[in-house]
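User: Here's a protein and a ligand (flavin-adenine dinucleotide). What would the complex look like?
Assistant: Let me lay out the input and then the predicted complex.
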Amino acid sequence: MIASKIIINYGVKFKLTHSLPHGALMMQDRGMRIVDDLRWRGVETWTDRPLGPVSGMRTGGKAEFFCAPASVRQLRAVLEMARRHGVRTHVIGSLTNTLVSDEGVEGIVISTAKIRGLLIKGDLFTAYAGEKLDTVINKSVEHKLTGLERLGGIPGTVGGAVVGNAGANGLSISEHVLYMDIMTKDAKVHRLPHYAGAFGYRSSPIGDDELLLSVAFRLGPALNTVQARQEKERYKAERVRMGQFRNPSLGCFFKNPGGTSAGKLIDEAGLKGISIGGAATADFHAGFIINKGNATSKDVMDLSRLIQDRVHAKTGIMLEREVRLLGDFS
Ligand SMILES: Cc1cc2nc3c(=O)[nH]c(=O)nc-3n(C[C@H](O)[C@H](O)[C@H](O)COP(=O)(O)OP(=O)(O)OC[C@H]3O[C@@H](n4cnc5c(N)ncnc54)[C@H](O)[C@@H]3O)c2cc1C
């Protein structure tokens, strides 16, 4: 007979099952200590948090632990606690470029989306990682600074944009980066100057075990802020007109191989509109994989692999994924 009871601990439910083997009880105990520790430090923390509802693709399983530190001090506390308990950490912004495994994610998923703030000094514009990129563009223009407008309408945080060197309409965000402040997993803060060659196509010098805290942009003077704001809104409106936000997606799923567009290759391979389960290529852009409503991350991955195989068979080009993966997809 299994005796179990629910303990409500800081709003987090733990099921204590007394017939569990010793190892499993130790795991539950560790979980409670992690949540207690973080909550005590004021960090918003959840166990078994479903990531599907907050991911761009609206698919994927649960995070064993999910926390959203609201300051650099809280972030440092999370990293120190993770090290103390030997728990793996994963960093996300707002998951608009990340596919989450249906099996969920072991360890602590740390969202930097709540680490926000802007500092403006002359033509130096500093944004904390959790600010929305769109807000950063609006605020820079409000402060009579120009440069980022062509990125108007790209969803997600500025942290995610810098780490992935987001780009659109012939502009990569790195073109305006002066330096970045990062935290390494030992909770130490470092300043990385932008040096030539550090960023690549959809890549940055930020390593997998580093967290971007803030980014300083060098922007130009906006002589006409009305025009700059209108330009940014035009780029954003064009995305809406195309239908980019009609279905959940992660934007372009594949990188453009040198000299051509992934979407064009997929289209020419006759794969526009093809679907597996609830995942399909979009009719407005074959490089977008969309969720038609009931997709799983497995559907999305299966479709992406089929696209890679077919395009490779037709052209000899192996498309490389632009989207990042979180959790196990083996
Ligand atoms: C409709 C649509 C259109 C899009 N159009 C474009 C486009 O035109 N151009 C483009 O480049 N992208 C585009 N994207 C993709 C996406 O919006 C961008 O890549 C965005 O910048 C990702 O931000 P995020 O906060 O959601 O990052 P996430 O998806 O949460 O994370 C992306 C990567 O960055 C890492 N990361 C995030 N924050 C941090 C941090 N603070 N420290 C360390 N690592 C971090 C994560 O570990 C992950 O590897 C589009 C997406 C959608 C849904």
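Summary: The pocket of flavin-adenine dinucleotide is lined by residues 56, 91-98, 112, 129, 154-157, 159-161, 163-164, 166-168, 206, 211-212, 244-245, 249-251, 324 (CB under 6 Å).
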